[in-house]
Amino acid sequence: MEHLPSKKLITTVLALVVVGALVFVAGNKKFDWFDGGAGSVVFEQKFEDRAVDKIKDTDTDGDGLKDWEETLWGSDPLIFDTDEDGVGDGEEVKLKRSPVVAGPNDALNLSSGGSSGLVSGDTEPETFTETVSRDLFAKYLFLKEQGQFDSATQKELIQDIVSSASLAGVEKRVYVTPDLNIVGDNSQESLVAYGNALRGAFVQNATTEVGKELVIIQGSIEGGKQDEEELKKVVLASQSYEAIERASLGIKVPFDIASLHIKLVNSYAAMSAIDIELAEMFNDPMRALVGLREYNEEIEILLESITNIRFFLENRGIIFDDSTQKYVIKS
């Protein structure tokens, strides 16, 4: 029987991290997308510890192995005695017996990675997830062998997964000022045209998935399921951000606002790249965890970019008219 503990383990961690991001809400952030209406994105900036505690302590079937440990061994977190040999999974591991092979010939070979083979080295890891998981399981087996596996080291091991995300980054398209279509006309009329073109770039290319990525991810994992069709909506959000990015690059940008505009375009490009990482949740969960960490940071940058452009226009006497849904010169 084949097991994929590396993906299962970190998917479990990631699922609870995402749920933590949505349940333990630090505050709402309102984003006005140049259309006069506010959309909201809810996120949590400091959720790792609470999510880790929940993972660390859960033993659904009460067999002495935490659910995340069962995932490592390939045993069933819902069944007290997975291999039905009369000995609970946790007791079997204590006795250095496999919880997934019925006795009596079920001795574990801890030096080769037990029943999972995660650290056997027979094959090269294909994903970031597998690389991190092999290292994690090697540490887990060492602590078990040395009798040092306790509540504190459990938490440290799981926290290692979250911390590993900070060592990687999302590859993003980056633009510089010469990539823009800059014009020397900084008049109010030019700025009005710019504001309306910028609004149009968003309105014409945004889909309902934009800004809802965390909600989509939560929906894709609720009840322990892996809803791939639901998760595909994150790809649609990525495509929308890219379309907005491309359209924003073609806008005529007054010289005085160019530095703010390039920051906004780069933020759109970053969101597109981050969403691609989030969409890998079921194939390479560690990539999604990296994306999740950067998502919260980039949303703040995007909000700041939008706010700064609106303030700049207002300071030049350009306001958004709700009745016409256009930028106009303030009378």
Provide the descriptors you would attach to this structure in a database record.
mainly alpha, elongated, two-stranded antiparallel ribbon, 331 residues, disordered N terminus, two-stranded parallel ribbon
Strand percentage:
5-15%
Query: What about the largest sheet?
Result: 2 strands, antiparallel
Assembly type of the chains comes to single chain
SSE order, as H and E? HEEHHHHHEHHHEHHEE
Instruction: Find the structural class using helix and strand composition.
Output: mainly alpha
Secondary structure tally: strands: 6
N-C termini distance? 74 Å
Mean pLDDT over the residues: 78
Number of domains: 2
Taken from the alpha-carbon principal axes, the silhouette is: elongated
Annotation field: number of helices: 11
Over all CA atoms, what is the radius of gyration? 25 Å
Provide the low-confidence segments as ranges. Answer: 1-6, 21-28, 35-49, 112-121
- Widest sheet: strand order? 1-2
Report the helical percentage: 40-55%
Description of the molecule:
- The chain is mainly alpha-helical.
- The chain has two domains: 1-167, no CATH class; 169-329.
- The chain is built from eleven helices and six strands.
- It has helices at 5-23, 48-57, 67-73, 89-94, 128-146, 151-164, 188-203, 213-221, 228-249, 258-278, 285-315; strands at 27-32, 38-43, 181-183, 252-254, 318-321, 326-329.
- The strands form three sheets. A two-stranded antiparallel ribbon has the order 1-2. It has a two-stranded parallel sheet with strand order 3-4. Strands 5-6 form a two-stranded antiparallel ribbon.
- Strand 5 (318-321) and strand 6 (326-329) form a beta hairpin.
- The protein is elongated, with a radius of gyration of 25 Å.
